[in-house]
Amino acid sequence: MSPPSSLQQSDNNLLNNEEYSDMPGELGNEMIEICTMAMDKFVAKRDYEGASTLIKNTLDKKFGPSFQVVVGEGYAFDVSCQRSYLLHIYYGKVGILVYKSI
Questions:
Q1: Distance CA 5, CA 67 (A)
Q2: What angle do CA 12, 13, 14 make, to 5 degrees?
Q3: Quick one: pLDDT at residue 19?
Q4: What pTM was estimated for this model as a whole?
Q5: GO CC annotations (predicted)?
Q6: Is the Cβ–Cβ distance between 24 and 84 less than 8 Å?
Q7: How far apart are alpha carbons 92 and 80 in whole angstroms?
């Protein structure tokens, strides 16, 4: 599945080409904007917990509960999630995993 167009081209060039998304275009683009906004705010302080909390709270308010967010460096994952609700991107060297649990 091809990634949303905003994954390939970013204004701040911090998103790189290692990503995966099974979300429809509009939803994926909106989630990327939310993730980018949170990372812009917290990455300088390396406050990944703050970034993940902001992303989760924003997504839960906007799209309903049950979102899970992982932000950090050097992790692997194997998750079960709702179809069309998985996003994995990198902001520089920091990985961001967002999914809606079943």
A1: 23
A2: 90
A3: 84
A4: 0.81
A5: dynein complex
A6: yes
A7: 26
User: 10 Å Cβ neighbour count for 41?
Assistant: 13
HSE of 14, CA atoms in CB hemisphere, 13 A: 17
Compute the residue count for the chain.
102
- The amino acid at residue 14 is L
Q: What is the pLDDT along the chain (102 residues), one digit of tens a residue?
A: 444 444 444 444 566 656 888 988 899 999 999 999 999 999 999 999 999 999 999 999 999 999 999 999 999 999 999 999 999 999 999 999 999 998
Residue whose structure tokens are 């839960």: 60
Dist CA 7 CA 91 (whole Å): 11
What CATH number is given for 5-101 in this structure? Answer: 3.30.740.10
Spell out the domain ranges in the chain.
Answer: 5-101
pLDDT at 102: 86
